[in-house]
Specification:
Elements (H helix, E strand, L loop, with lengths): L3 E4 L5 H11 L5 E4 L2 H10 L4 E6 L4 H13 L4 E6 L4 H10 L3 E4 L4 H12 L4 E3 L7 E3 L3
Parallel strand pairs: 1-2, 1-3, 3-4, 4-5
Antiparallel strand pairs: 6-7
Helix pairs in contact: 2-3
Amino acid sequence: MKPILVITGETFSYGIGMFVRSFLPGYPVLYAETMGKALEYIFKTKVELVVMNVYAYSEDDHFMIKFLRRAQPEVRILIFSHNDDETIEEQYLNAGVNCFLSKKMTTDEYQLAIDNLMNNETRETEGEHTTINKIKYE
């Protein structure tokens, strides 16, 4: 089973990894607290899923997403964000991520989204706690 790579510069990376692991038991989880460490993993290891913890869209994130797509075209990319602004969401989806999830969603909504992502299903869901959570899979 290919691992899940969690990329975040915050101490929350382990919490996010454990959270995602609770939905995907059996997958090993790798943690990268810097872009450099994430790139090391991408060069050495095929990964199933990349999870990025973000607040606002940045050029560094855009670069990382484009790099991930070139290095491992089949990798699934999931964004967790405190910011559920549709503009930021659209920027990430247009940059090539598969799934954008607001941290304001319910556990059931996360479960549905992650299940759909891992099964390559396309969905749009209206979240109870967010205006819209688009989930785009390529």
